[in-house]
Design brief:
Blueprint: H1 2-11, E1 19-23, H2 29-41, E2 46-50, H3 53-61, E3 75-80, E4 84-85, E5 91-92, H4 99-108, E6 109-115, E7 130-134, H5 139-147, E8 151-155, E9 157-158, E10 161-162, E11 170-176, H6 182-190, E12 195-198, E13 200-201, E14 207-211, E15 217-221
Parallel strand pairs: 1-2, 1-3, 3-6, 6-14
Antiparallel strand pairs: 4-5, 5-13, 7-11, 7-12, 8-11, 9-10, 14-15
Helix pairs in contact: 1-2
Bound molecules: ribulose-5-phosphate.
Ribulose-5-phosphate (5RP) binds next to helix 4.
């Protein structure tokens, strides 16, 4: 999709020499990674921290130097996509199942840029399911606990079997009737034993790169 390419490529301009860059997951940030590989050939020096096995493979194929798992201390800039963005820049992520590593990277990054086509903007986050990564042990109990927060849960499946994340966990997609306070909900979900992470990303995005109604790339900042 052209809008994903334009937004994704623009974000690559924010990477400077010497940076450690969190590389997100998905079809929009894919274009960022491609552009970064192009800039690398022109002399840009940086190192990447991939947020998924999928991104790790893409980056490795393009020859992007990656920081190995045990050596990630500082991330200058994180760039990633989103499934939904509300007017307060609260995000829902995890459509690709990479939310746990994505949140670790977004939280650690000094700056976090989101790349998204305009279709990702929603007036109401409750219109979108929140992915919750749960460890398989006693996941029925975790699910029951989640339901008590007032949502409908659905185990994510792939080819008729449970979808397994890069961390060996399940994903429960949770639909709430309303979300009054996303920050509070993010914390409430995280408090449930068995929950590894949830796809609500509050207070994280510094900039959102998207397209306006004229199809021009715009950078929204808080
Ligand atoms: O959260 C994600 C993966 O876990 C992605 O960032 C999100 O699904 C957006 O993907 P795309 O850029 O392909 O629309």
């Amino acid at each position: 999709m052209e809008s994903k390419r334009l937004a994704g490529e623009k974000a690559a301009e924010f990477v400077k020499d010497g940076m450690v860059v969190g590389l997100g997951t998905g079809s929009t940030v894919y274009y960022t990674i491609m552009k970064l590989a192009e800039r690398m050939k022109q002399g840009l020096v940086f190192k990447g921290v991939p947020t998924s096995v999928e991104t790790e493979k893409i980056a490795a194929r393009l020859g992007i130097p990656l920081i190995s798992k045990g050596e990630i201390n500082k991330i200058d800039l994180g760039i990633d996509g989103a499934d939904a963005i509300d007017p307060d820049f609260v995000l829902i992520k995890g459509g690709g199942g990479a939310l746990l590593r994505e949140k670790i990277v977004a939280e650690a990054a000094d700056q976090f840029i989101v790349v998204a086509d305009p279709g990702k903007f929603v007036p109401n986050l409750a219109d979108v399911e929140i992915p919750v990564e749960v460890i398989p042990f006693a996941s029925e109990l975790t699910e029951k606990h989640l339901k008590s927060l007032g949502c409908h849960t659905k185990l994510r499946v792939n080819n008729n079997t449970a979808f397994i994340t890069d961390n060996g966990n399940y994903i429960l997609d949770c639909k709430f009737e309303e979300i009054k306070n996303p920050k509070e909900l993010e914390t409430q979900i995280l408090r449930i034993p068995g929950v590894a992470e949830n796809g609500l990303f509050t207070d994280m995005a510094n900039k959102i790169i998207t397209l306006n109604a004229l199809g021009e790339v715009v950078i929204l900042a808080k």
